[in-house]
Model the fold of this input.
Amino acid sequence: MFFVYVLYSPSANKFYVGYTSNLESRLLSHNELGTKDWTKRYRPWNLVYTESYESKSSALKREQELKTGVGREFIQKILNKK
Done:
């Protein structure tokens, strides 16, 4: 199982889109363990959206879709509901 996820940093008003096969471990990396990542600068991150996929290729395709203009609009709608 693979997950596409959206993180939101309320302190920086930024979001991050990624995919992983281990969501719990990846969230820990973004919020505590990562040392060189772009995400380290904008901690803490809140998980605001997830989708699950059977294949890595499907998850990667959706991640790329969410990083387009249409995808960013979709994410902004999610954030406005929070």
